[in-house]
Amino acid sequence: MANVSTFDTTSTVVTDAAVLATTPSRALEGPSGRKPKRRLSRRNIILYGTLGLAALYYLLPLYVMVVTSLKGMPEIRMGNVFSPPMEITFEPWVKAWAEACTGLNCDGLSRGFWNSVRILLPSVVVSIFIASVSGYSLANWRFKGSELFFSILIIGAFIPYQVMIYPIVIILREIGIYGTLTGLIIVHTIFGMPILTLLFRNYFTSLPEELFKAARIDGAGFWQIYGRIMLPMALPIFVVAMILQVTGIWNDFLFGVVFTRPDSYPMTVQLNNIVNSVQGVKEYNVNMAATLLTGAVPLIVYFVSGRLFVRGIAAGAVKG
Amino acid sequence: MAKTHQSARPNQLFRNLNSKIASIPMIFVALVIFLGGSVWTVIYSFTNSRLLPRATFVGFDQYERLWGSARWLISIQNLAIYGILSLIFSLVVGFVLAALMDQKIRFENVFRTIFLYPFALSFIVTGLVWQWILNPEFGIQHIVRSLGWETFEFNPVYDPDIVIYGILIAGLWQGTGLVMCLMLAGLRGIDEDIWKASRVDGIPMWRTYLFIVIPMMRPVFITTLVIIASGIVKLYDLVVAQTSGGPGNASEVPAKYVYDYMFQAQNLGQGFAASTMMLLTVAIIIVPWAYLEFGGRKRG
Amino acid sequence: MRIRAFAAVMAATVALPCFVQAADLEVTHWWTSGGEAAAVKELAGAFNATGNKWVDGAIAGSGGTARPIMISRITGGDPMGATQFNHGRQAEELVQSGLMRDLSDVAEKGKWKEVIKPANLLDSCTFEGKIYCAPINIHSWQWLWLSNAAFKTAGVAVPKDWNEFVAAAPALKKAGIQPLALGGQPWQANGLFDTLLISLGGKDLYEKVYKDKDAKVAAGPEMAKIFAAADKARELAKGSNVQDWNQATNMVLTGKAGGQVMGDWAQGEFSLAGKTAGTDYTCLPGLGINDVLTTNGDAIYFPLLKDEAKSEAQNVLAETIVDPKLQVAFNLKKGSVPIRGDIDMAAANDCMKKGIAIIAKGNTATSTDQLVSADTQKQKEDLMSEFFSSSISVKDAQARFVDIISSAD
């Protein structure tokens, strides 16, 4: 921390004007000069001020959602989305979780929760494993044609996946796994593959080359280098991959219904049915509660896995 | 395969054998699903398939109709505006946030989760919430006016001229957190020694970022670029939830055209023609770039 | 208690064969809102009472969301037991490809041809003389819903038809009331236009344009009048600033808007808010000008299954759907009109009764969903939503309309 502040003067000057305009808390700094160890240094004010402002922008809609989910419908109809609830009610949350109807089944989101978990876990593990290994071979063990396949894969990332539904239905039907959980896991792996492979390939490429060469000289093979060196060094990117996949698969609706049967429909089917009912009164409070509940699982994953972001893993591995 | 044992020196096929085995899933997906599926789509875009794929060829009819459609032209224009702005803002905001997060700050976990949480929410609700916040009658315009600025005009939900920017605001809110995470992962992959060295040399921080760190993060930037760009091309749910493409067709996008014509109009041929045009555009941009990017540097 | 309820339902369906082999039948549909779900419950209960089991596959969001799923399941070789589609031509190709089950025997047994009214409902289930679906309800589009309170505020009498409504609009505007509420989704603009066409232009004009697809008529002076009326409606609807149809209905409900042109499902919103027809709101079928209603609605289709027990269960479900008791129970909950004319709907409210009376008189027309393909319908939607939200001229709009009609199918 201390040595960072020795050269940050220049960077502060650049943004000073902007900060003057945007950070009211600057007044707290007072007239005294800079003291490196002070918690309320100019650098910190700029830093936390900017982060705080950005956080406000990101939190505003969350505020609206939470506030709305705690209001009753009559209050929502009156119309100010920002006003706090006059009467707090948890009914929308209860309704979203346990009572909202999907056709005949009135047990809310809880119905699909475990189905979603059953779909999520294998899909995330399988897709990330396959993609990380593919990315690793593309980065470190190129073979003839590997780049061509990879380029096709990348273009695949741009295909709207609804377009691919019919061909994939046909392929899965021919293999005989249409309508099974295996089929769904394969579909998730397929559509996660372009971005994930790219993610891992490019991350492994950016790692110091000496590391890989040294390991080869030591006689380590394909899988040894992957398991002992690449895996531990790639933790931050594994976190990103996990964020992508957990969110994508957890929020997926289309594949979940197209490739499975009602008894294993994921939670998003209920979410869709709650949020998307075309004919009838829109219960905005229940919608918001349902969304926040559905978002809870990815959010927990973000928060917990975030620890793996700590700097030093990579640096440590290089030195070790 | 069996005959390869004949040769004495290590055979071409067995070089990097493990790597090839590990890549089988990737090769399968690339060739069978994406290439195969795309070829299938392109072929059927020349048919008059309706609800089900049907091999009655009609030449370029579907394409003629596509380019004669006012809605398609507006869709492309909207995508261009949204795409360019979204690309710039995502990268800039994402990188700046990541750089700030990388200053060994306190509560990093909290801030990261705050920036990232919108990504956990479905587009359906993102659109709904922003539709409210931007709504002239009870959203931002209402608040500003009630504060005394009576003539304040900000209506990106029902004003056809700026509706696409309303979608941009919501899209950035949802997506920049992930970009920040990617950038952060990239920054964390950079050796601490680089920073130490630049400090010793007395190079100002912003210069270190601009001329040393960012070039080193090139692969991460490329990944990010592809993620953002593919998200832009596939932009659909958000538009549906926030504006339904309206008012009128002022916020239509190509992916929505594709889906609407495939499933609502039950005209697969027209939908496939539109998706072929999208794919073609993507391919024209990506293939040369991929050639330069992946074909140039050899390694490993 | 369960047994009693069961017995009651059993009693209601004694007419059905109870000795058949029982089977689980998965039924996919997009009836997910409150009233719709209650209606499905009636149907499922009646079906379960036959000894079979209804496995519910509800997926909200008709067009874009539910249909690709249903079609994938059917073409993927893992079909559901039965599925909802709108009346009309949505399932046409599935039938052509031989993926759907022929219900002619069931129809014959139940004398569907005699009891189902109007007859065109069954026509759109018919392909090459065989019957492939069971119609379950009727919805109509041609309704003008008016807020009595809004007109009172404006100091004018509640209009009795569309022309009076247009004439009263300036008074509404002066009182700060939005004359016509119109949601932003394309299908609403399209429905408004088609309603103007049949209600102001008459059934003949409507059929010439959509049934005969006569481009000359579409380009003619009579259609020009409809476009002029649409232009007027566009002016009255300016500033609605809502997305969903029920938000627009809500404007009428709360007196913020004078009126809305919307199908009879809007009725549900009024009853849910505890409003009474006549005193709180007024409904004008056929916009008060032309008492003709189009008959849209839903129908249940049955994919071809290999399992014999399930096929038998499909027959039972088809019989249950057309059963008079179920028709009453289902449609009262759904707020729609039953598909048979020989049953008593005394429990219906005033607006619903007006609709039933018009249909009973035979003043019906085939809906656009049945007359033109989904593709043509979508193109119309694109045009109309653009027309109602921009300032493209009436002339240009009509020219583009003619293009659509001349290539319509």
TrEMBL record, chain A:
SUPFAM superfamilies according to UniProt: MetI-like
Membrane-crossing residues?
Answer: 45-66, 119-139, 148-169, 175-204, 225-250, 288-310
Matches recorded under CDD domains = TM_PBP2
Pfam families reported in the protein's UniProt record: BPD_transp_1
Q: Where in the cell is it found?
A: Cell membrane
PROSITE patterns linked to this entry: ABC_TM1 (PS50928)
A Gene Ontology biological process in which this protein takes part is:
transmembrane transport
GO cellular-component term (any): plasma membrane
Q: Superkingdom of this entry's organism? A: Bacteria
* UniProtKB keywords: Membrane, Transmembrane, Transmembrane helix, Transport
Q: Topology with regard to the membrane?
A: Multi-pass membrane protein
Q: Which InterPro entries match?
A: MetI-like (IPR000515), MetI-like_sf (IPR035906)
Q: State where it is primarily located.
A: membrane
Domain (ABC transmembrane type-1) spans 113-305
Q: Does the keyword tRNA processing apply?
A: no
Q: Which family does it belong to?
A: Belongs to the binding-protein-dependent transport system permease family.
Q: Which PANTHER family match?
A: ABC TRANSPORTER PERMEASE PROTEIN, GLUCOSE IMPORT SYSTEM PERMEASE PROTEIN GLCU
The protein's name is Glucose/mannose transport system permease protein
From TrEMBL, chain B:
- Keyword S-adenosyl-L-methionine attached: no
Residue ranges of every copy of the ABC transmembrane type-1 domain listed in the record: 76-291
Can you say where in the cell this protein is located?
A: Cell membrane
Please state the span of the N-terminal signal peptide per the UniProt entry. Answer: none
SUPFAM superfamilies given for it? MetI-like
| Keyword presence, Membrane | yes
Q: Which GO terms describe its biological process?
A: transmembrane transport
Q: Which residues cross the membrane?
A: 21-43, 79-101, 113-133, 162-187, 208-233, 272-292
Q: What is its main location?
A: membrane
Q: Which GO terms describe its cellular component?
A: plasma membrane
Q: How does it sit in the membrane?
A: Multi-pass membrane protein
Q: Which InterPro entries match?
A: ABC_transporter_permease, MetI-like, MetI-like_sf
Q: Check the record and name the Pfam families matching this protein.
A: BPD_transp_1
Q: Which UniProt keywords apply?
A: Cell membrane, Membrane, Transmembrane, Transmembrane helix, Transport
Q: Sorted alphabetically, which PROSITE patterns does this protein's record hold? A: ABC_TM1
What PANTHER family does the record tag this protein with?
ABC TRANSPORTER PERMEASE PROTEIN
Family per similarity comment:
Belongs to the binding-protein-dependent transport system permease family.
Protein's recorded name: Glucose/mannose transport system permease protein
Species this protein is from = Rhizobium soli
